[in-house]
Design a protein that fits this description.
The structure is a homodimer.
Chain A (H helix, E strand, L loop, with lengths): L6 H17 L6 E6 L2 E7 L2 H4 L6 H13 L7 E7 L3 H9 L4 E6 L19 E4 L3 H15 L1
Parallel strand pairs in A: 3-4, 4-5
Antiparallel strand pairs in A: 1-2, 1-3
Helix pairs in contact in A: 1-5
């Protein structure tokens, strides 16, 4: 029997990744890439560890997913990410021709939505607000700890 | 005696990188990062070789420059790139707080300028059109070969 998992199920996986980032003192953002109901890539923000501004969860997940599939293009995949992607990541998702993007919390300051959906590939479906509260909570806690 | 090199000098270095991409059958874009009059990173587009849409010249140069400096931030650096960066790369340059961006040819279809300069860090100075003809020529030749 094929079990079709819900968006919440996969966002929980992305949250587990975000939690790993939190524990490593990285801004807690996590992402997973799902293809045909299966997680093919998992990543969390590693900008501090790698000393690299490009090491966002989404970028690392894109690279890992392409490796897993043997294809640069992710048109049959969904990327779940706990936070609204920034313009860099949205640009990367556009090049990958991502099929579907699902994000949790919004990021009014750094998120790609400031520039509108046209920054993504025209065929990418977008949903947001999935487990928003849990996704935001981790971010809020992180910046509270820093104060 | 300190020789201060011109923008043309460094763009020529970026063009040498673009030429390497051309020879490897990659879209011919090259970049160098210069800090205190010295090239600290060189890269060219490797999306085909690495099977990775994120492997643009600028992204690879950002990562390499951060490694060379031991700092994620490139506020004292200039990035020379043969083609106008895309939104992904511009977003990366923003996170790196790049001091100065110099690009050769414009890219009306994919370039970040469609979304305006605010996609970059507010402190990044931008110049373009340096050796534009040489930079464009390589791109035109590449796509002509493909037909």
């Amino acid at each position: 029997m094929l079990t079709v998992f819900s968006d919440n199920h996969f966002m929980k996986q992305a949250l587990l990744e975000a939690q790993k980032a939190y524990e490593a003192d990285e801004i807690p953002v996590g992402a997973v890439v799902v293809c045909r109901n299966k997680v093919i890539a998992r990543a969390h923000n590693q900008t501090e560890l790698l000393n690299d501004v490009t090491a966002h969860a989404e970028m690392l997940a894109l690279t890992a997913a392409a490796n897993a599939l043997g294809s640069k293009y992710l048109d049959e995949c969904t990327l779940y990410v706990t936070l609204e992607p920034c313009t860099m990541c949205a640009g990367g998702l556009a090049w990958a021709q991502l099929g579907r993007l699902v994000y949790g919390a919004s990021d009014d300051k750094r998120g790609f939505m400031r520039f509108g959906k046209s920054i993504l590939h025209p065929k990418t479906n977008v949903e947001f607000g999935i487990m928003m509260e849990e996704c935001s909570k981790l971010m809020t806690q992180f910046f509270k700890d820093k104060r």
